[in-house]
Amino acid sequence: MRHALAIGAMALALSGCMALDADDVREPPPIPAKLIAAMAKNGSKPESPVLIRIFKQESELEVWKQNKQGQYALLKSYPMCRWSGKLGPKMKSGDRQAPEGFYHVSAGMLNPKSQYFLSFNLGYPNRLESALGYTGEALMVHGACSSSGCYAMTDQGVGEIYSVVQRALAGGQGTFQVQAYPFRMTAENMAKHRGDPNFDFWKNIKQGYDIFEATKRQPKVSACGRRYVFNTDFADGEPSDPLAACPAAISTPDAGLVARLQSEDAKLAGMMTNQTSAPLNAYVDGGMHPSFRALLEKNGAEKLAAKISGTKYPISRPEAALADPYAGL
């Protein structure tokens, strides 16, 4: 029996960051007064819609809040303590990859009983990923500093994030969008990674990144033709088969936005002609924000784990976190 339980626990660990729930429901901390003041300054309030962006290489998570004009303003950027895998999308259970793509999180995906303090499920695999045959489950944003495919934000960090998104969902936002990227998708960064096998996928998700950068409005996300399609309305409604060719579009693109996106495409094309690709880094395992890496180097893994979480989870693969395979990119 114990052997069977051990095998089951190992399978869960490999499939994502799933852990057995804690015995009690944890109430998230109140939204800090500084964050509420920052919302007011940006023209939003705690009940206003929220949007999250995640950047692996930079090990950062951004929380954005919608203002009265319907645009999003950056509320706060959080350093990420740990993520696992490497740059690129998650494709199968056990690959330790943290997901990349577009996800929509509802209230039912929040977990106030997480053994990683608090967490919310990204909803991987989404419709497109499921159609492509990608596998995995329980890919989360959570506390502590341990990852096997998730984004670990420390207890304090996830406490703030959780309280902000919970308040927005309670205020009437049906789902909030999470945009997860390998890096900040500037033309310069894309050109550096032009030799990566994931480049075509990154060009696709960069379209959503560029739309948000240009408009500060949440892009509408569809899936057809084996890719994401943004801000498009279709004659017969949303495409039902992400693998089939995209149906005829009926929406008229905004001319100003199209011009800005075309300018970004031209900039990338020029940089790809003139810039040398970044050398491929030896795979270690994921990343850690420099602020946490400095603490890990100074204090060691046990002291850092105790400092940033009360859940007693050790830092995952601390040697790999210290190696920083993305330095210099």
Automatic annotation (TrEMBL):
Query: Active-site residues?
Result: H142 (proton donor/acceptor), C150 (nucleophile)
Q: Which residues cross the membrane?
A: none
UniProt keyword Heme, yes or no: no
Mind listing the UniProt keywords for this protein, alphabetically? Cell shape, Cell wall biogenesis/degradation, Peptidoglycan synthesis, Plasmid, Signal, Transferase
Q: SUPFAM superfamilies, per this entry?
A: L,D-transpeptidase catalytic domain-like
Tell me which EC number(s) this protein carries.
2.-.-.-
Which top-rank group of organisms is this from? Bacteria
Pathway linked to the protein: Cell wall biogenesis; peptidoglycan biosynthesis
Q: Does the keyword Glycosyltransferase apply?
A: no
Q: Which InterPro entries does the record match to this protein?
A: LD_TPept_cat_dom, Transpep_catalytic_dom
> Which intervals hold domain L,D-TPase catalytic?
50-181
Q: Name one GO molecular function term.
A: transferase activity
Check the UniProt entry and state the signal peptide residues, or none: 1-22
Q: Which family does it belong to?
A: Belongs to the YkuD family.
Q: What is this protein called?
A: Murein L,D-transpeptidase
- Which species? Ensifer adhaerens
